[in-house]
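Researcher: I'd like a structural prediction for the single chain below. Treat it as a standalone chain; there are no partners to consider.
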Amino acid sequence: MNYKKFDIFSPLVFVLLVVVYLIFSQIAFNYHLKELVGININTLYVIGLGLVFYVGGLCLSRYLLNNKEFSLNETKINRIFSEKILLSLVIVGICLQVINLIYLGGIPLFSGYLKAHAATRIWLLSYLIFLPSINILMARYNNKKYYLLFIIGLVLFVFTGYRTTVMAIVISMLITLYYTKDLKWKYLLLAIIAIFILLLIVGYVAVKSIEWQTWTLSPLELLFYRAGYTLQVLDHAVVLQGSTHGQLLYNTLMGFFKSTDPRVIVGSTTLGYAHSTTSMIFGPALLDFGLYAMLLQMFLLGAVMNFIYLIQKSLGNVFVGLYAILLAHVFIWIETGPTDLVVLLFFLITIIIILYSVSIKRGDV
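Model: Treating it as a single chain, here is the predicted structure.
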């Protein structure tokens, strides 16, 4: 059977992953990991509504783009995404990450104190350059030597100690290879298992290295606990709708330049003390503006992701790498929520490239 008849990386798989995340959280509740107690049923209704609106956005996007043809101006694409330019950008991204580690004076993965200061402006620029460059490079050019650059970059970002960054790099690369290389089913399965193991290892090592915390959970228990804990935070957010009055959105857009972490605001609002806290993809919009804002967010996200998905399916090229990056971060948002400026910049860059190089016209009926 050709498994690619079933596109496992379509935007619809997001819904399945949310369900898996809820199952993980239920395991944590059943075993009362670190005294987790569960959530109100209303929170599940809110999640269900969010998913319905996400699927609604997918369907509307598909309907509006039905019988439309996409055409690519390859001259424009080749002008800005030549092999030499992409390779240079990948190397620049790697060098910036090396500079960032030297500036920090150590490896943040093994020190909570260093990790607290690792997200510098150099780190942001490095990630913003490296991730799209390596994915587009691998999508456009078939050179096995570039796998070495990917591994070097991955290791350097592992040293930073941010689990979500590492996951974005490996998941996006898997999606890129899925669409551009003829991956056999067994290799795809092995890659998914390897990513899962890497998630456990990096998350566990990073947590154990935080000097002011004591954890007794195993790596697998920690994974379930994170899901349960985050869902409980969302449970608080459902009750506290509209309480942050747009602070989360403002600090997502501007907080990096003011050294303000939106997730600390989430923690202060839902838990009553300053602590960097995640509230699932639904939480920030609920806290800022309430239920209707969250539903609008999910609807727009579904529409935009399906639009980019249809473009990459039709045109391939750089859009495979760009879609892979966005989908990987949307997967990560299931836990963290859309509170990262860098991801919004990736969306902006993708839309600009589409407007610059793609034309849409009505196809034959």
